[in-house]
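Dissemination and training. As part of the outreach component of the grant, students in the summer workshop were shown how a complex can be specified as a set of sequence lines and then modelled as a single object. The example used during the hands-on session is reproduced here so that future cohorts can follow it. Participants entered these lines:
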Amino acid sequence: MRKLSTRRRHPLAGLVVLLLGLVVAGGLYAAFAPRAATAEEASARDVEAGRQLFLIGCASCHGKNAEGITTKSGGNYGPSLIGVGAAAVDFQVGTGRMPMANAGPQAPRKDPEYTAEETKQLAAYVASLAPGPSVPESEYTDYKAATTEEIREGGEFFRTNCTACHNSVGAGGALPNGRYAPSLKGVSAKHIYEAMLTGPQQMPLFSDEVITPEDKRNVIAYIKSVQDQPTPGIAGGSVGPVSEGMFTFLIGMGGLVGVAVWIGAHGARVKKRSS
Amino acid sequence: MTDDLEPTGASEGTVAHEPIGDPGLPEHQWRPTDVDADLERRAERQVSTLFGLGALLFLGFCVAYFTVDADQTFLGWNGQNFALGATFGGGLLLIGVGIIQWAKKLMGDHEIVEERHPSASSDEDRTAVMIDVNAGLNESGIARRPMIRNSLLLSLGALGLPVIVALRDLGPLPHDQRRTVWKKGMRVVNDVSGTPIKPEQLQVGQLVNAEPAILFEEDADGERVLHGTEALQVKSKAAVIVVRMRPEDITPSKGRENWGVDGILCYSKICTHVGCPISLWEQQTHHLLCPCHQSTFDLADNGKVIFGPAHRPLPQLPLGVDSEGYLIAMSDFPEIVAPSYPELARDQKKLDKNS
Amino acid sequence: MTTEYTDIEKTPVGKKMAGPVEWLDDRLGLAGAGKKLMPVRKVFPEHWSFMLGEIALWSFIVLLATGVYLTFWFQPSMAETVYNGPYKPLNGLEMSQAYSSTLDISFGVRGGLLMRQVHHWAAMLFVAAMVVHMLRVFFTGAYRKPREVNWLIGLGLLTLGLVEGFAGYSLPDDLLSGTGLRFVDGLIRSIPLVGSYLEFFIFGGEFPGNEIIPRLYMAHILLIPALLLGLIGAHMLLLVYQKHTQWPGPGRTEKNVVGYPLLPVYAAKAGGFFFVVFGFTALMGAMIQINPIWAYGPYNPSEVTAGSQPDWYMGFVEGAVRVMPNWELTFLNYTWSLNVFIPGVLLMGVLFTALGAWPFVESWITGDKREHHLLERPRNAPVRTAFGVAGMTMYAVFWIGGGNDIIATKFHLSLNAITWFVRIGWIVLPVIAFIVTKRICIGLQRADANRILHGYETGIIERTPDGSYSERHAPLPVANQFVLTSHDRLPVLEAPAEEDANGVAAPGSRGARLRAKARSFYYDGAVDKPTTHDVEHAAEHLGDHDGHPVPLGEDFQGVSETGIPRSHL
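and obtained this result:
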């Protein structure tokens, strides 16, 4: 220690400290910043396999080089995928939204067309085109590790940012002109994360700088914990007064009027009293 | 009116004109339980069984109360709620069904005829009461002493005034409806976490649900300056959303060209219809939908209303960047936020004058 | 009339009762009061549709019982607290005491969640039963003289029920109830001229303030229940005094009431029904989730959930507010938010005024000032029935508007398309419903007349010697014929005299003309019942017709008038 303290006034000390600071900052940045998936990281074989799959299954809408195809009117036939990153591909293909089965207000969730391996290859190819958000680290999708406090905080983020579209238990909701915010039931933590990160279709994106990866993990933990709560009875598909009103009339009034009919009904009769 | 259908005593006369005469009450028919002693005893046993089962279920309720824990589940439902409700409700239902069954099968079954009387009082009653009322009124002299009568009416009418005036302190007079806590230099911070936002942290298509920084300010003891309902009151007017679009997609109206930062715009989160917080932003169409009544605003076009019951466009908050590079408000909202109120037009003029 | 009776000591209810009963009667004169006010053998006619109001009454009792239970724990305060309880996802969150105590009732009190759910289901059923009961009264003309006052009392009960329900919906201070309050805040603000003042007085300052939940609590557990109880009492007293209406039938006239005595049959059935209603709501509370406030989170004005709706009975207002065009104007330097005020405030006013005025308007049109104790079958008042169905249609269309987001997601429709459907449908569909309903009623009236004159179809096919086939008709039993004909004959419509005998314009002739028009509209197209002459000569008139009724002997094996083969009866 003495050695260090004696040299702190050395002409080069400032430079060393500056260098050290830069290295630490850079290291921390490298450790915490979202890792851009680049071609070097994914194996070249995956990229090539992904390109082949892309040319067969995706290029007709998104263009041979994923540059997108514009319609005559200037709209998007298939948007450019340059820079969307592996996360977007993993979400769109992994949830079956892409490839689209038919044109509609929005691509619905369905059984995926590609295997997990093929999805990875497609993601690797698209990620190789330009840097973009990568598939989240497993530590940010391990929602089971969240503490009670973290779940509560995730709930606050969820209610502030998500419930307006997706409903407070993630049952989904309506958007203009036939579009909708899909249900979050049965969606994997990874896909929820990727949706927040990439903003698929009409959904706005929530970048890691504003809603941090930990926040996102907590949001997922809250959704899962709310959906795991036992309900006190049939929940009616979605939560809310519309289904409750339906039950009021169909079951409540229906049942009680049935009883009233039974009370008022004249039962079997016989002609004479046998004595 | 001459052609009113008045009550007449001649309704018996009209009976003769009825196409079908009243055949009278049909002959009483017996129930099987009236004629068959076996069936009667069976019904008796049935009813007693229902009551007995009811008693058992109530006992079951008590057992469930002490044995079924809150975290036990049944068919994925809350087990305690189900156990208590099923035993309690089942028992009640059995008692009810038992009583009704008793009435239907075993109680007397002869229909009874009761005569109706006109709803109006009889003439004698009317006369007798009016004699009394007249006597009473005459003794009071209310007709002969109009001064007393009128002054009484006056004072009773005036009694309404204190009743209304006493309600005055239900709340303060309307104030500050045109202002929010936003002011020049206040940072726009992320809701919940309270972290300030830099423009470069936002990507195109990003939405941030944000609040004024004052909501997250803490005093020396680390306590929030605003909390409880005070904080809710601030939020109910000052909550905002920050969105980033491609600058070329935005068509700012005159005077708003510099209200955004590189395509980042900030709008009130409170719907101008009845005040629901709106953040259903479609990043591709730039439309913002209110989940309550479906008013739709175009954020690329100055918050213009494009569908639904809202009338006023969504107020926009002019944005800037402070010396540390964080997003700040450049002023309070130049337009009035939250639902319309009668003095809105006047208040808006005042705002316009000040700006 | 027999004067023999068994002394109370010897009745089955027990010797032990005799002492207290005598003690009480010595002081209160129970026998005299009972005989006058509520004879124990008072007769109530029996029909399932007469028990709809009972559902409302018994739900109200359930509400009182469960509501009292909930007050033991509920804290009507907006003061801030930090939740630390068994419901983990909200642990450590700041919230109002109202919300935190509701969480405690739901998770900390055994049976508390059940009571909350039963209370809420009973509330939904209370209003639903009132509405259905009112529809029954409307469509059978039971509100006619002398029961107009009871109709108005019932309307008052419904109005109070809506307010009471809304207050209860708002109390837990969860995100949904707060969103509802925010909506009401917008409604209050929209009231012309005084909106801001009302808002600040009601909320005790700017929304949401500190006061609204304690104030609503007072209204919810004291003020409105007391008013409801009083009005229910008046409703029942009038029912007892005027005696229940009854359906026409053999032996049932305007001057009597036929049915079962209060003691024992009616008391048992009504009392049993109370247990059924309580049990039923308890089972609903056990098996169907309602208002999961923990899932919504505490109220926060910058949060909202998709699918935010009021409870069903406010759904029509919600729908009207959603589909209303965005009219707002500035007039006399004031802002007039017609987009909120018309559907949110005015619509309910118009609806309840129309309902309240209807008995009087109808009696003015028909000129009917007689007492009615026999109900009218809906088909025999085609215009009334058609108005009722048109009103229900409009209500239902607004309902669709109120749930448009849920309908859009569940049926994959466009939100905007549903909104446009409602914008057009609320005016077009009731007109169609009116026309269709009226035609159906008239068709049914024709069918009734036909069944009287031509008898019913027996299902027996006869072949004549020349080879043609026909179905044998048999006359309806007299009792059935009587039911079909026991209603008023159509009045003869005459144009009102425009001038009196001296050629001077008759006083009030304008009103009279309007009334004559309304009357001819009211009776237009209705089919009168057959006359005595028609019935007596039916056989002769229809001598050549193959459908004339032929009396059948006891050994006839075709179908009965109800369509069931005789051999099965």
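Chain C touches chain A through 74 residues (CB under 8 Å). Students were then asked to discuss how this feature might be tested experimentally.
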